[in-house]
Sequence to fold (731 residues):
Amino acid sequence: MIAREKLNQLKEKFGPAIQRADLPGEDRLFVFVEPSALKEVCRFVFRDLDGRYITGIGADDRPFSGQFMVAHTFAFDREHLLCGILVFVPPDPPRVESISDAVPAANWAEREFRDLVGIEPVGHAHPKRLVLPDGWPEGAHPLRKDVPWNAVPEGFDDEREFDFDEPPEGCVVVPFGPFHPTLDEPAHFRLYVEGETVRGCEYRGFMVHRGIEKLAESVLTYNEIPVMAERICGICGCVHNVAYAQAVESAVGLRAPPRAEFLRTLMLELERLHSHLLWVGLACHIVGFDTLFMQSFRIREPVMWIAEKITGNRKTYGLCVVGGVHRDLTPELGAELRQVLDRLEAEWRAVTAAVLKDRNIQKRTCGIGVADRKLVKEAALIGPMARAAGVDIDCRRDHPYAAYDRVDFEVITAEDGDVWSRIVVRANEVFESIKIMRQCLEKMEDGPIQLSIQDELPAGRLGMSSVEAPRGEAHHFVITGENNRPRRWRVRAPTYQNLQAVPAMIKDQQLADMTISLASIDPCFSCTDRLETVDLNSGTTKVWSAEELSRLARWRT
Amino acid sequence: MSLASKIKETWICLKAGRVTLPYPAQARPVPANFRGRPIFDAAKCIGCAGCANNCPAREILVFDVCQEIRILKYLGRRCTYCGRCAEVCPEKAITMSPEFETATNHIGDLQQRLDLFMSTCQRCGRCFKEPSVLEQLKLKGYRMDDLENERWVFRSRSYLENEPVVDDIRIELD
Fold:
């Protein structure tokens, strides 16, 4: 059993530093280690055992154990194992050894728990604010249990501005975002530019951090969270919905009925179809090829309509609850879905036949935004980013969930790691998704779609779940708790890891390639609350207020 | 060859023709089980407050004026049209309507208020048993949401505890 084998390797190497281990199943391992050994254990897992870093979680466990908790999770993809390295950290003040010089991918995760839980990563090279808004005072940590969900800390200053780093000498700062036509979310990049060449950048994001995790831990209940989890992302909502439900199920040892698993698989793949078609369209739009942008969106539309027919909405399917799903697929809709897939496959085949040989796109994207194998390992890149660099990882196959162990499909990879490879990977993944959906429709048996849960869920259990979102692996980590809600629920969206590689990807590139490089990781669209129009004739400016804008938006025909 | 690609691409566009729908002049009809704005039917509602207890956005408030009269208010501000209320309603008193163009300058256009005459025992809270333990009523008996400020009150005074309800609101029982 692979989990036991890994545990023995760790015990052999570190002996008494391994305090306790939980093996809830063949594919999950939780190891509790001495705080002093954390860095070495993580280094060993990351370097010697070649684990892939997933994320770091900080939790306030004071009401239960009197201590704080930090967990770093790793995946062994070929061995189908998810592994958590956990430490308890004494409070006043909580400090933990930073692992980010051994595991560079842990950079953001450590900065995040420094902000939100207030656990200081000692030895972190750049312990700067990451998540909290500019106006938050130092020392206020919203994810601590003694902070109410709606607290505004004393000393909150709306006017305070972010303290940006100094640009390197000889460089000019070009701001990119927070509102930029090609950015999918309000994120701000300060690009350091020398002539036309980008030499580096500083990232400031998390502008739409909504505190969903805090809400889940303090207000919502187990079966309300899936609806909220779905709103984490406008494109891959169903992924978070399923990942949350699976994480809770894995923590308490439940398994959804087979039909529910097939339905989850089906909807996840439907979501991947629309997401990939959307992305290919947007990528083409960014490189100035609007024909394919239009066609790709046209081909995508029937996917949205069938989703609307099945679930009642184009997006936000509202599919999962803990222990199953609550929307079934009627045979008529199944037949209609098959027709949609057939038409989609034929149309997409025609598009790929044309586009994958189009020199114009190749010239614009080949050798741009390269993330090679080394960067994939160091920054723990996932999804199409990793696969385009020849790293053959896919959660659907490596950490099978829902009904992916009962369907056949290929994992598409490419070699070059540039934007073009990512286009090829995503375009071809569409066919694999169609294949999976057809198999689901065939193999799905009648039966219940929800478990009847008889008892309250036990508290204090750990659960994690990885789901392959269109952008890569979405990871959810749950500690179950009292009062019908989890104690801690940590969501790591795929873009979280992929975005960390952007500075390395755009370094020494032309400024004009910035947009497509960034868009190639498929980050998640922003909306503005204020805009400015200029009257060209008179030269006067008019600034629209939020109220005027909303009136304009509501005015119809 | 790139030229072949261009010809193929042209063909794809020509074949597709014009696909744009004349929206908003003419709205596309929505499918049968579309989840639009929820509509509450006062004639069917038994006032069990199952919808209020399961609303993830806390958009349904319940206030017991006295033993016999319960007010149920739907606020329609943050409602995400998730359809949980319609799903848990034992009397099918809530329907997810086909309405999706609900932008307005007056929130009152979306709000619904039901004044319900109650004859079941509110103290035992047993008029509605939800399907799963995860969903069973967190709140029993009296519900005293803050209708004036349109806020959901996190802990009801069903057990008649002496502690205040939420931070700054104190709801007095007769």
Q: What stands out?
A: The domain at 212-368+395-408+434-493 of chain A is CATH 1.10.645.10 (Cytochrome-c3 Hydrogenase; chain B). Chain A touches chain B through 52 residues (CB under 8 Å). The CA atoms of residues 126 and 369 of chain A lie 24 Å apart. The longest strand of chain A covers residues 52-61.
